[in-house]
Specification:
Length: 499
């Protein structure tokens, strides 16, 4: 409780009324209801007011009369009757016109002391910025803004800030969604994601977005691989393939497998691509690749299998059965069927051309000119180095074999090479180099549709014999998907010529 000092009418600051603390004076005193007065000229004058029992009361001049309700200073004050009277400064609710403002404060509720001699200013206050309450001419104070918000100021989000003197507020912390700036309390704004992605938010893939009101990220485009649902940028998830098949994935056959562990693709090991010279998917064969099957494994004695254009079946038209007196498969002859050839047509002079039981020509009846020898090459007993598949389609693949002759040296050679299983497409060229005893003689090429190679090569300088090691080596790998071709190991020959 605070007691306030009050300026009295006597010119002195005091909690009591003005007057003499001594006894009665010679001044004239008028009591309420008195019929006379006394003065100092007649100290023995008395007034006998009536008493309750009818007896008269005599008061000497200058003496106080017991029970007298009046004095020279006015009525006697009664504290507590809510009336400020006499020398009281206030009384209860009667504050005698006093207020907190008149006591120098900015506001509040003033009260009267219990003894009516002072004012209680406990509830009075001064205005000051920073107390969290808007007072006086303050526009704001702390978090109080008289109902104003960023939204009421035309923004979409954020919080107002109050100036240090509480005289104004700022909007620098307010945000406007859609201005491509993350401001206010926005989480993002359009494409501005503050470096966040689906991955940083715990997803595996997909594009992160921003909600239309900029309050949070839009993760609808994000995906979580392994949840069995195709979401985000996933191609698949678990067994969910989104209707994909081997065909839709660019293959020509087969059964598409499950989704991979990253949900970005499929297991295509069960799919096949017809024309790539590899038996894959549910293919039976592909070009010269016959899945390990041969004419012999299918019951024929010779020949070369082929594959249908759709890679779904083997073609046995190139297979032969030796002994049926009909040239088929890769046979040179069969019994009396010499395919229309003779010693002379084969360049072996006069004589009688025959056929061996293995359905290859018998040259023993031919009058072969001196300085000329013909030998089978390549054969199944010659060295073959094939890196992939059954044919020489990779660079460095080769056939090699040594032929013992009666010729001391050679000046030229003639090759007759039967081509089998030609699966080359228009983009495929299978080129081979011919070398004898390490000396290069030239090259020959097999393309789509080639059935035989008949080519002569001069040998310059001459190669000394009589033994000659022949090699056919592929010079360049055939482009992927362009096929390959094989060399017949039964009917192909090489002729050595002297000088």
């Amino acid at each position: 409780m605070h007691r306030a000092w009050i300026w009295s009418g006597c010119g002195a600051l005091a909690l009591v009324a003005c007057g003499d603390d001594g006894g009665a004076t010679e001044d004239t005193t008028t009591s309420a209801g008195a019929t006379g007065s006394s003065t100092g000229d007649d100290p023995s004058s008395t007034t006998s007011p009536a008493t309750d029992d009818g007896a008269e009361s005599t008061t000497a001049p200058g003496d106080a009369t017991e029970g007298d309700s009046s004095s020279d200073d006015g009525p006697v004050a009664v504290c507590g009757n809510d009336v400020a009277e006499g020398d009281e400064d206030c009384d209860g609710t009667d504050l005698a016109g006093w207020s907190c403002e008149k006591q120098g404060f900015d506001g509040g509720e003033i009260a009267c002391d219990a003894d009516c001699r002072g004012l209680d200013t406990t509830e009075c206050f001064f205005f000051f910025c920073g107390n969290g309450t808007i007072q006086g001419d303050e526009v704001c104070d702390g978090a109080e803004f008289l109902g104003a918000t960023c939204e009421s100021e035309g923004f979409d989000s954020g919080s107002l800030t109050c100036a240090a003197d509480c005289g104004s507020y700022g909007t620098e912390a307010c945000g406007t969604c859609g201005n491509a700036l993350v401001d206010g309390d926005e989480a993002c704004d359009g494409a501005v994601l503050r470096g966040q992605t689906c991955l940083t938010l715990g997803f595996d893939s997909g594009p992160l977005g921003c909600l239309p009101d900029c309050t949070d990220f839009d993760s609808a485009g994000c995906g979580a691989c392994g949840n069995g649902s195709i979401d985000g940028a996933e191609s698949c998830d678990g067994v969910m393939t989104n209707g994909a098949t081997c065909l839709s994935e660019g293959f020509s056959s087969g059964t598409l497998g499950a989704c991979n562990g990253t949900c970005t693709g499929f297991d295509t090991s069960g799919c096949g691509q017809c024309g790539n010279a590899v038996v894959d998917g549910d293919e039976v064969c592909d070009g010269a690749a016959t899945g390990g099957q041969t004419c012999v494994s299918l019951g024929f004695t010779s020949g070369t299998l082929a594959c249908t254009a759709g890679c779904d079946a083997l073609i046995t038209a190139g297979c032969g059965t030796c002994g049926n007196d009909m040239v088929d498969g890769t046979e040179s002859c069969d019994g009396v069927d010499l395919s229309g050839n003779s010693c002379m047509s084969l360049g072996l002079g006069n004589g009688d051309l025959g056929c061996q039981p293995t359905c290859v020509y018998d040259f023993s009846g031919c009058e072969i000119p001196i300085g000329f020898e013909i030998h089978p090459f390549p054969t199944a007993t010659d060295l073959s180095v094939i890196s992939s598949g059954a044919n020489l389609w990779n660079a460095g693949d080769y056939y090699e074999g040594t032929r013992m002759t009666m010729l001391p040296s050679i000046g030229s050679v003639d090759i007759h090479l039967e081509i089998v299983g030609n699966g080359l497409t228009p983009c495929g060229v299978q080129e081979s180099e011919v070398t004898i005893n390490g000396q290069s003689l030239g090259t020959f090429s097999v393309v789509q549709g080639t059935t035989a190679i008949d080519q002569s090569f001069p040998v310059v300088p001459s190669i000394v014999g009589p033994n000659y090691t022949v090699r056919y080596e592929t010079t360049a790998t055939v482009a992927g998907g362009c096929g390959s071709a094989g060399f017949d190991e039964i009917n192909s020959t090489i002729s050595f010529n002297v000088g």
